[in-house]
Amino acid sequence: MENDPIAGRLSAVYPELPPGERAVVRVLLDDYPFAALGSLRALAERAGVSPPTASRLFDRLGYGGFADFQAAVRDGARDRSRLLEFVTRRAPANDQAGDPSGDQAGAVSGAALDHTRPEPTPPPPAGEAGASSWRQAAENLRAGLDGTLTAVPEPLYHRAAALLAEAGSVWALGGPLSELAADYLIRQLAGLRPRAERVPGSAPGRARTVLDLTASDVIVAYDFRRYSPGTARFVHAARARGARLVLVTDAWGSPLAAEAEVLIRLPREAAGPIAPLAHEIAVTELLLVATAAHLAPAGRAADRLAALDDLTQTL
């Protein structure tokens, strides 16, 4: 959030705020931007204040209420690249050494909010800095996975699994990176049941797919910011033919969320420079486990996997 103007503004106005509103700002900056994505009541509870107190902060900042503030946070964050910020922070900046204007105005929490500014210290050696970044990324990944697995309730997996097991056909697609999760789902699901396919990439291929869709078919879409217009176009066309949607998305709120019969929302992205695929794969594996369990009593998955194994060894 180093270059985020909203985070910078929150830290700038902090000294002028009454205690209750300061508490809200601390929560926002300590978990920015995700603390801004829940309800106003949840934010107020985390800050230990009443919802009206929290609401006054956003009025003071000139927003038309909390919903307006949330929209601004979403719009400001969608186009930021964590990888770009990561490499930018680590680029040589000798001309900024000791220059207060180079401070990270948005990264204010804890001691910085109390106006204690430590003296600049020399950067660690390159190898040491790299090791520290790696350790932090590992901790973030571990914490993020724990948070994801905790936040997605078991009944949601079983609802999605019932659709995947009983659908006439299952079609999966994703964006530039999340298409890897869609591909993984189909590779595994095709061993459990027939008619599990990746959505074609070309417009003619997608048109032929949509043409034959019915209400018995299921689309599994992985849609993360920056949300894919191609995924949205296909899903809208498929929904118009009656197909049902299982949507795996993020905390920002995919434009397709209202279309989903089953909505699996991952609570946050891993903090770090690389867009996390591990969360999506972990949720996909649990979906597959739940689907296999749903198919097991009828013996369909076991018979199919045994036949697939025999064929694989003879071909």
What does this structure look like?
There is one protein chain. The protein has 315 residues and is of the alpha/beta class. The protein folds into 2 domains: 76 residues, Orthogonal Bundle (Arc Repressor Mutant, subunit A); 166 residues, Glucose-6-phosphate isomerase like protein, domain 1 (Rossmann fold, 3-Layer(aba) Sandwich). The chain is 53% helix and 8% strand. The chain has 13 helices and 5 strands. Strands 2-1-3-4-5 form a 5-stranded parallel β-sheet, with helices on both faces. Helix 11 links the parallel strand 3 and strand 4. Helix 2 crosses helix 3, helix 7 runs parallel beside helix 12 and helix 9 runs parallel beside helix 12. The longest helix has 26 residues. The protein is elongated, with a radius of gyration of 23 Å. The protein starts with a helix and ends with a helix. About 9% of the residues have low confidence.
